[in-house]
Amino acid sequence: MNLFTVKENRKLSQRYHLLILEGELENPLPGQFVMVRAWPGFDPLLARPFSIHDHEPDKLSLLFEVKGRGTKLLAALEPGAKVEVLGPLGQGFPEVNSGEVILVAGGIGIAPFFWTAKKLKEKGLQINLFYGARTKNDFLRLKEFEDLGISLNLSTEDGSLGFKGFVTEPLKGYLHEPGEKIIFACGPMPMLSAVAKVAKDLGVRAYVSLEAHMACGLGMCLGCVVKRQERGYLHVCSEGPVVPAERVF
Amino acid sequence: MDLTVKIAGLTFKNPVLLASGTWGFGEKLKNYLDLSSLGGLVTKGISLKPREGNPPPRIAETPCGLINAIGLENPGVEIFKKHVLPPILAWKTHVLVNIFGETIDEFLAVAEALKDEPISGLELNVSCPNVAKGGLAFGHDPATVKALVEELRKTYPGFLVVKLPPVGPVLEVARTVLEAGADALTVANTYPALAVDLTNRRLALGRGTGGLSGPAIKPLTLKLVYDLYRELKAPIFGCGGITSGRDVLEYIFCGAKAVQVGTATLLDPENPGKILAEIEQELEKLGETRLENLFAGLFKSKH
Ligand SMILES: Cc1cc2nc3c(=O)[nH]c(=O)nc-3n(C[C@H](O)[C@H](O)[C@H](O)COP(=O)(O)OP(=O)(O)OC[C@H]3O[C@@H](n4cnc5c(N)ncnc54)[C@H](O)[C@@H]3O)c2cc1C
Ligand SMILES: Cc1cc2nc3c(=O)[nH]c(=O)nc-3n(C[C@H](O)[C@H](O)[C@H](O)COP(=O)(O)O)c2cc1C
Ligand code: FES
């Protein structure tokens, strides 16, 4: 684990924080994650996995939702506090050099897409973000995504902003349009499953970023599994978190 | 500083081994730690046939503890021999292969398959269920575990460790396996444990129950080591909740010859190296130059 220092801990709303850390992450790739611990002793025992939300030399940002004990402790961190970080870990999104990249995010699944979009944008690729949330107040970092100059397609479950319903509906409509496309999706399992189905039906390649409870993040405990499509289990921390959708769905 | 440890004809360069199932097969750990610097490596449990393991969730966290129900996922002994073991054997330290089976014959077949491999020894995981006894673990049944070790001893002359479950008739099982020819004991495996997911109104682990490891179990396993050493004076690998050099010395003081570090490696891949370095510092603080001088010290002092 490497020691990082809290530069800023920005409360974005009641449940969401942007944690900006100073420290060096060696050659990270979009879609990879880090294991984070920011408390002394062994309670909580395990480090917590988080996607790389943004990265610059000597700077790492995490976007997180306050869920339980670990994230509550992270939310309370003050500037100057030390944080242990292990990473970058796992397999990120595949390299894309042509065509259009469609990012599909549900809820906090938006986390890995800021840096991903930034990097893809640098390559001059066209990016279209389909972003679903419960209500208009649950969208995160919308202004920053707009500033990247990518296309945004919002949907909310209650219809308070954008399309009313699940993000897969507008996605389906869009996928019918011609052109070379690839989908990167991150969000809750039911959303990933729905995206995988739409992509398969329309013959579009899709990659999904998975979640699982993790102890080590390094393929050592075999604790972080998700059922594979064929037989057996896939280890999210070493074979993922990003995998081709058909491996799971 | 002299950290060497001798157990039944094997010399370990120091008392820190990596416990079964907590370091993968070293593929990633080698980036954080020189595996050759350790006293030894105990592999993930290997069975005759490949095993998929349990459905998720496989882990749950409790205060200072980890409950796991991995389900002994492993590639099976043939793939293990061909692809997994060779790079592990390249590390310049002792490699013990942890094996298990659901029948005595399966244990014997795994041992047979490994007989020509240049490993340092076998560790038997007897915490797994015995099919012939309706799922009662081998390690809870002195008569069966005796038969297992006796049978194995007919064909396997090498270094043989039995890893005990921490519950059940532990002392009787320990005595029995030593009489049947085991060289040493690993004390102990994880403690049967349960976690509940109230939000979803079910058990937190996919398989239902699991095994508790980590700092939460250290005082319990320390007592087991103390009790077993007092009764049996046999070579013991202490294993349970070790996270520091001080923990290692406490185990050795209670009668362990060496230790195995498990969950600590999962918490931070640099932990085994840190623990090793701390042993020297702690010995220095205690004014000792030889680890051996602390061994079973509790039984030598007047208290
Ligand atoms: C690869 C990966 C990337 C992630 N990226 C982000 C991110 O960028 N932003 C974000 O807000 N969240 C992310 N998560 C989820 C995040 O790890 C959990 O919300 C967090 O661990 C909860 O910890 P807690 O102590 O607050 O909750 P508790 O419920 O107290 O945690 C108890 C245990 O369960 C584990 N756990 C609980 N929920 C999850 C979950 N959904 N996924 C994995 N483990 C869980 C914890 O790690 C811990 O070991 C990611 C998960 C994974 C696997
Ligand atoms: C994720 C995990 C996997 C394990 N797999 C095995 C195994 O395959 N065989 C075995 O004998 N013990 C296994 N164990 C038990 C450990 O080797 C060790 O005995 C136990 O965790 C107690 O030590 P600790 O508190 O230092 O972790 C496993 C433990 C954990 C946490
Ligand atoms: S978290 Fe340990 S193997 Fe994935």
Can you offer a commentary on this structure?
The complex is a heterodimer of chains A (249) and B (303). Chain A has helices spanning 69-75, 113-122, 142-147, 168-175, 189-201, 236-239, and strands spanning 2-11, 16-22, 33-37, 48-51, 54-56, 59-65, 82-89, 100-106, 126-133, 151-156, 163-164, 181-186, 205-209, 225-227, 233-235, 242-244. Chain A is α/β, with parallel strands linked by helices and 249 residues long. In chain A, helix 4 (168-175) packs parallel to helix 5 (189-201). Chain A is globular. The model of chain A has no long low-confidence stretch (mean pLDDT 96). Chain B is α/β, with parallel strands linked by helices and 303 residues long. Chain B has one domain (5-299): Aldolase class I (TIM Barrel, Alpha-Beta Barrel). In chain B, helix 2 (104-113) runs parallel beside helix 3, helix 3 (142-155) packs parallel to helix 4 (170-179) and helix 6 crosses helix 8 (271-285). Chains A and B meet through strand 14 of A and strand 5, strand 6 and helix 7 of B. Flavin-adenine dinucleotide (FAD) binds next to strand 4, strand 6 and helix 1 of chain A.
Query: What is the 3D shape of chain A?
Result: globular
The unreliable regions of chain A are: none
In DSSP terms (H or I, runs of 4 or more residues), the helix count of chain B works out at 8
What is the fold-level CATH name, i.e. the topology of chain B? TIM Barrel
What pattern of helices and strands is seen along the backbone of chain B? Answer: EEEEEEHEHEHEHEEEEEHEHEHH
* Content of β-strand of chain A: 25-35%
Number of strands of chain B: 16
Judged by helices, strands and strand pairing, the structural class of chain A is alpha/beta
Number of discrete helical segments of chain A: 6
CATH C-level name of chain B: Alpha Beta
Determine the most extensive contact between two protein chains.
A-B, 28 and 35 residues
Assembly type of the chains comes to: heterodimer
CATH superfamily of chain B: Aldolase class I
Q: Termini distance of chain B?
A: 28 Å
* Strand arrangement across the biggest beta sheet of chain A: 4-3-7-1-2-6-5
Low-confidence stretches of chain B: none
Distance between the termini of chain A: 34 Å
Helix coverage percent of residues of chain A? 10-25%
GO cellular component, one term (chain B): cytoplasm
GO molecular function (chain B): dihydroorotate dehydrogenase activity
Organism (chain B): Thermodesulfatator autotrophicus
EC number (chain B): 1.3.-.-
